[in-house]
């Protein structure tokens, strides 16, 4: 089975959020779709291992903010590669509350839903939500697609994401092996891989003050691919 065909399907990049009792929390999702128009209902898939999953079940509500091509890539690192159990993901983030749910302002806009049903799969919960509020932020850039994130931002899917494919890691290893097999005179640049989110930096040297554009980690979190 060639799972790469899934890459031809359409995905966005969203910050799906809810309340963890009295504090906001959330995670990156990309499997969100509108199911009906009247009443407007939305389906979102969240991994069982994501802390946000249990918080959504407890609160009975969720929001999702639609990231744009100009949204700070650090949002993906913050919400996609850390756990809400360990950090306050909204600390330092420009957000507001809408219908009792946190929404990220550096986005195209947001939708807030009341959970009306769930379906469990082997790895994910599919939440069905009835829309209670929605807003568009004027002046935002085009919505970010997963293809844009993968090809332009050069980011990888978190392992809990529905779009994560083990082939990503295999391809990275194969590329590194191919680079190693090149004659020395053909090797023009080095490759450093962020050990947190998988971002690849290419250049002669990795600047000591370099920060990953995805997860904002420092140069010490990068490993040179030999």
Structure summary:
Helices cover 17% and strands 35% of the residues. By secondary structure, it is an alpha+beta fold. The protein has 2 domains: 3-151, Pnp Oxidase, Chain A (Roll), CATH 2.30.110; 166-224, Rubrerythrin, domain 2 (Single Sheet), CATH 2.20.28.10.
Please provide a written account of the structure:
By secondary structure, the chain is α+β, with helices and mostly antiparallel strands. Helix content is about 15%, strand content about 35%. It has helices at about 50-60, 75-80, 145-150, 165-180, and strands at about 15-20, 25-30, 30-35, 40-45, 60-65, 95-100, 100-105, 110-120, 125-135, 190-195, 200-205, 220-225. The strands form three sheets. It has a seven-stranded antiparallel sheet with strand order 2-1-5-8-9-4-3. A three-stranded antiparallel sheet has the order 11-10-12, with no helix packed on it. It has a two-stranded antiparallel sheet with strand order 6-7.
What is the beta-strand fraction? 25-35%
Q: How do the helices and strands follow one another from N- to C-terminus?
A: EEEEHEHEEEEHHEEE
Number of helices: 4
Q: How far apart are the termini?
A: 31 Å
CATH homologous superfamily label of the largest domain: Electron Transport, Fmn-binding Protein, Chain A
What is the rounded Rg? 19 Å
Largest sheet: 7 strands, antiparallel
CATH architecture of the largest domain: Roll
Low-confidence stretches: 169-177
CATH class of the largest domain: Mainly Beta
Tell me the number of structural domains: 2
Q: What is the helical fraction, as a range of percent?
A: 10-25%
Enter the CATH topology name of the largest domain: Pnp Oxidase, Chain A
- The counted number of beta strands is 12
Net shape? globular
Mean pLDDT: 85
- Which structural class fits the helix and strand makeup? alpha+beta
Strand sequence of the main sheet, in spatial order?
A: 2-1-5-8-9-4-3
């Amino acid at each position: 089975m060639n799972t790469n065909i899934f890459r031809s399907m359409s995905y966005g990049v969203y910050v799906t959020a809810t309340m963890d009792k009295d504090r906001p929390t959330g995670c990156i999702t990309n499997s969100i779709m509108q199911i009906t128009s009247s009443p407007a209902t939305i389906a979102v898939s969240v991994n069982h291992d994501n802390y946000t999953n249990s918080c959504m079940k407890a609160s009975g509500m969720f929001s999702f903010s639609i990231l744009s091509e100009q949204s700070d890539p650090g949002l993906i690192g913050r919400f996609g590669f850390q756990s809400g159990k360990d950090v306050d993901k909204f600390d330092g983030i420009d957000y507001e509350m809408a219908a009792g749910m946190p929404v990220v302002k550096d986005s195209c806009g947001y939708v807030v839903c009341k959970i009306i049903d769930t379906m469990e799969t082997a790895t994910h919960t599919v939440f069905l939500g009835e829309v209670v509020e929605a807003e568009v932020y004027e002046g935002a850039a085009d919505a970010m697609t997963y293809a844009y994130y993968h090809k332009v931002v050069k980011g990888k899917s978190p392992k809990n994401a529905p779009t994560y494919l083990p082939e990503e890691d295999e391809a990275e290893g194969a590329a590194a092996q191919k680079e190693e097999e090149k004659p020395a005179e053909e090797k023009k640049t080095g490759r450093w891989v962020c050990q947190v989110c998988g971002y690849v930096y290419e250049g002669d040297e990795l600047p000591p003050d370099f920060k990953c554009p995805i997860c904002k980690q420092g140069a010490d979190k990068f490993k040179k691919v030999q």
